[in-house]
Design goal:
heterodimer, A: mainly alpha, B: mainly alpha
Chain lengths: ~300, ~300
């Protein structure tokens, strides 16, 4: 009896150290799922490097044998004869994303530290409200957001790319959960030595929660880099719009009034290649950032449970 | 000398009220861009605001109209949303748990690579997403799906996938499922990897017989907090991605209202017809719906202790 139990214990396979034949069954279905998931991204990758004559050939070629940078050159060329070059949109996106990441990190850590390590009235209420705000769906309040931003005089102001994105409930939630597992005694010891909260935050907390910070940085990066809201609704000045918005003007059947480029590149062969090239430029920063920081993200996620 | 004392006093003031000052920026922005918009949406939903004239109070009229007179809401937006959120929300959630669990059964390096690939689509929001999928669903014979079906002789002439009201909702579901392995998926994976091994050993001694029982009696109860976080993330992203139909078809309203969801229905009224009061009423219904579903999820995961 005891022996049999022991045998069974050995099949427990969570987080195995090394490969075993019993794992093959998982690969049998995981590999196809992963492959299908990756397929659209592979397509767009190859489309971006396809020469024009291959883009509309029938039957379609999925993989190009003659990679070229022509599409990227065309992408730059479409905007060259216009008032606003593509680089301007890219510059806007880079600056606003940088600001969003920096400020989101700062305000999130400050608030999360208080909610985790300080005792004061309203603390639990505030965190409870934030936990409820995880369920908040921003697109549902597009109308009042517009009215508020209008009243604040932020229409056509570059900062409208940044300010509405800074309060990130998921970010606060994850960082607070992470700080919760940092020993109170260390913070108390620092306080007895006369350290102020600002000092504790800078010297004690922040160096110890870098995985959580990396995770918030990624979430903030994605929310800003992919954001269309500001360019669509709050900014009329072409020169202040973002790269993700510029991309929508390139897609063939985008329904917006600014689809001038769309009509130009529309269904032409060059248009397809340009869209793919632009999509790749949008996608690559997301990819690189996540690949570099993924182990920290996983570390943070192991604190993410809701109690 | 005086300056120094002044600086010291200012510093002391900031130190004493550090809890206030440290939280001030977050709470201010949180109030302005999350709390107030919700309150304003609720307020507007009782008016006939049209963005030009002064709003008049109309009581429950908007809600009554949504529920009784709005044919598009009852025939398209609501059933589409229910279908979409059950398949994408619930289905995507179960799928991400199963994939997370399966990934936990293999060694670290292949697991990491596969997890990264599965997570990638959730980073391609909005415009990138539609560009990626337009290559596959392009309406001419060069579109990947059309050319494949033509080659297999399953269709005679190419189908205009993204403008065809018969296929739009289906395509939206496929694309959303594809991009549903997001933060919640990572949380569940991390949770499963963190389950104490002794729990499994104890369970097998107590008579758990197979992997399925192991999931039901050990894994899921042990990672319940992560399941909850994953559920909330899944619900939110399902509703947040509501405009995917507009993105793919390039029109709001979507062709034949086939891809119209509650969120796009509200947007159509607010930003195409400028009936902001009415749009706000629909938005409030969306927020209530998300909250109710989250409470149900909470009941499912929390009350078993």
């Amino acid at each position: 009896m005891r022996r049999r139990n022991r045998n069974k214990i050995r099949i427990i396979g969570i987080n195995p150290r090394r490969f075993d034949r019993s794992q093959i069954k998982f690969y049998i279905y995981l590999l196809p799922v992963v492959f299908i998931t990756a397929l659209p991204i592979i397509f767009i990758f190859f489309n971006a490097f396809k020469p024009l004559d291959e883009l509309l050939v029938y039957p379609p070629k999925f993989i190009t044998t003659r990679p070229t940078l022509q599409n990227f050159r065309n992408l730059i060329a479409t905007s060259a004869n216009k008032a606003i070059p593509m680089s301007r949109y890219l510059f806007n996106s880079l600056i606003s994303t940088l600001l969003v990441v920096a400020f989101t990190l700062a305000i999130t850590v400050m608030a999360a530290y208080c909610m985790s390590k300080r005792k004061y009235r309203l603390k639990n209420a505030l965190f409870g409200i934030n936990e409820a705000a995880l369920m908040f769906v921003p697109v549902a309040v597009a109308i009042p957001r517009y009215i508020i931003i209008y009243k604040m005089g932020l229409i056509d102001n570059f900062l409208v790319h940044v300010i509405p994105l800074l309060a990130l409930p998921v970010g606060l939630y994850l960082v607070k959960q992470f700080i919760d597992d940092f020993p109170d005694s260390v913070v108390e010891a620092a306080r007895i030595d006369g350290a102020s909260d600002y000092y504790i935050l800078r010297k004690v907390i922040i160096p110890n929660i870098t995985p959580a910070l990396a995770t918030v940085a990624i979430l903030a990066f994605q929310s800003s880099w992919n954001s269309l809201e500001a360019s669509y609704y709050y900014i009329n000045n072409e020169a202040l719009k973002s790269f993700s918005f510029y991309m929508t003007t390139l897609t063939a059947n985008s329904g917006n009034a600014n689809g001038m480029v769309g009509q130009m590149t529309g269904n032409t062969v060059a248009g397809l290649g340009i869209q793919a090239a632009a999509a790749l430029i949008m996608f690559i920063p997301n990819l690189i950032l996540f690949v570099i920081l993924q182990s920290r993200v996983m570390n943070t996620m192991s604190h993410s449970g809701m109690k | 000398m005086k300056d120094k004392r002044l600086i010291k006093r200012i510093k002391g003031f900031f130190d004493r009220h550090s809890v206030f000052f440290l939280q001030l920026p977050f709470l201010t922005l949180f109030t302005i861009f999350i709390i107030i918009p919700i309150l304003v949406a609720i307020g507007l939903s009782f008016t006939d605001f049209n963005s030009i004239e002064k709003p008049n109070f109309v009581g429950m009229d908007n809600y009554v109209n949504v529920l009784i007179n709005d044919a598009v809401f009852m025939e398209h937006a609501l059933p589409n949303t229910i279908q979409f959120s059950i398949i994408v929300g619930v289905g995507g959630y179960i799928l991400s748990f199963l994939l997370a669990w399966s990934l936990a059964q293999i060694t670290r390096i292949p697991r990491t690579i596969m997890a990264v690939i599965l997570y990638l689509p959730s980073m391609t929001s909005g415009v990138m997403l539609s560009t990626v999928w337009q290559v596959i669903f392009a309406g001419d014979k060069v579109g990947y799906l059309n050319s494949l079906l033509l080659k297999l002789d399953l269709i005679q002439k190419p189908i205009v996938w993204l403008s065809d009201s018969r296929y739009l909702l289906l395509i939206m579901i496929v694309v959303s499922l594809w991009s549903s392995m997001g933060v919640g998926f990572l949380a569940m994976l991390a949770g499963i990897l963190n389950v104490n091994r002794e729990l499994y050993e104890a369970a097998y001694i107590d008579g758990v017989k197979n992997r399925f029982q192991e999931i039901v009696y050990v894994t899921v109860p042990a990672i319940r907090p992560y399941m909850m976080f994953g559920a909330v993330m899944s619900i939110v992203s399902t509703f947040q991605n509501g405009s995917i139909g507009v993105m793919l078809s390039g029109a709001n309203p979507t062709p034949g209202y086939a891809g119209q969801l509650l969120v796009t229905h509200a947007e159509e009224y607010a930003f195409v017809r400028y009936e902001m009061g009415y749009g706000a009423a629909i938005s409030v219904l969306v927020l209530i719906l998300v909250w109710v579903i989250s409470q149900i999820a909470k009941k499912l995961f929390m009350d078993k202790d």
